[in-house]
Amino acid sequence: MLSTPAELRATTSAPSKPMGSDHHTVAIPPMPDYNGRALAYTAAAAMIVTGVLQNAFHQWQLWLVVAAFVWPHLAYLLTRRTFLRKSPRIRQKMLIFDCVVGGAFVGCIGLVAIPSASVALMLMFSCLIVGGIRQWMLGTGFLVATTAATLAVAGGPAENFHAPLLTSIVSILATGIYICVTAYYSHQQAQALMLAKTQIQNQREQSIALSHKLSKYLSPQVWQSIFTGERDVRLETQRKKLVVFFSDIKGFTELSEEMEPEALTELLNHYFNEMSEVALKYGGTIDKFVGDSIMVFFGDPTSRGQREDAMACVSMAIEMRKHMKIMRQKWRSQGIKTPLEIRMGISTGYTTVGNFGAENRMDYTIIGKEVNLASRLESLAEPGEILVSYETFSLIKDRIMCRDKGEITVKGFAKPVPIYEVVDFRRDMGPNRSFLEHEHSGFAMYLDSEKITEKERRTILAALEDAADRLRHEEDAT
């Protein structure tokens, strides 16, 4: 007469966990439509048999018992073995048909109170759970309409609406058993769904944590474009005009011969961490670390325009040079006496950028003669020097003071390449410059006035006055 209120015949599986974790499947205890419908129609058959034996119903209604036992099997065949299985919302449609059958049954027994109420209760209970208020209202409409139509055909309701005691007891028990059984399965399914939801949430959190771990092996811009779906992970490249940056540490080879590998590794990682923070601050895409070298490019995956990309790259290089002086003083306080200087090269031009490698192992990088030029400029630079190509110079010259360094011959370029040395921001030149430096044995000062707060300024002035008084006292003593 009706279908189960909550059917999930297949198991519900949470999404696959990250690689290396166990895969769990949450099995939701199913109560198929076939079982639910068979239980409901068996309950109706029990009411009919009892009612006929107690002369509450007509003898011919025993044929309804046969129909009650046949219909669940027929409904199963129709919904699982025929074209109806592909019909959308087939469960709701079959439940509406059950309401029509239930209404016809209620009309046939002449609205005898308790059996009629029992059938209606089972139908409404199923409608509410399967389809909510909308299904309940629809089912109620069909139930009432079919009942009224059947009563009109059958000649009206029964003379006595009261059913015999045994018939009433069987009706109530059958309805109670059906409701309890279906409610039990609904509860089991709700618990299983909550467990599945918890597992899915846990796996989602694990996937997010894993993705953040994997992001350490990619530049943040590349990682973001992949995980947001902006870029596909496949072998593809494109030609773009980029700004390419190379740097390395002058004196690192000599230092590696003096230090233990563990201490050297710690120093190098500290250096890479500090420089990476500067690169990301200016929006650079960190390509790779090779030995003590860093390769960064600007203009992909995101670009602010050629001029701004070039300006960001050179600004990054200037800040790296300043930051290197601060780190060098810190290393000196840790006993590293070898002077470590950074040297940098920057070029601008068309390169091939994208995924290179194999289908199962890719590297997002760039190739082209401009990459070779930037590397060559870095190797030609003096300690603490930033060399740029002519095209880079033409993009930044209005805001950056540069010095002509002549021309060099580079493989892949037909003509000699003009190069320039970056001096500083034009705004920081002269007496109003924000960055001051002074370094001697036993003394080092690096001042960036733009980054100093009012409270820090008073502390620094006090420290400088104390240092000046001490130097004057020692000078007077000599």
TrEMBL record:
Residues 1-22 are annotated as: Disordered. It comes from the Bacteria. InterPro entries: A/G_cyclase, Adenylyl/Guanylyl_Cyclase_3/4, MASE2, Nucleotide_cyclase. The chain crosses the membrane at residues 60-78, 99-124, 136-153, 165-185. Keywords: Membrane, Transmembrane, Transmembrane helix. PROSITE patterns: GUANYLATE_CYCLASE_2 (PS50125). The keyword Translocase does not apply. The keyword Membrane applies. Residues 243-378 form the Guanylate cyclase domain. It holds the Pfam family MASE2. SUPFAM superfamilies: Nucleotide cyclase. This is Adenylate cyclase. It comes from Marinobacter salinisoli.
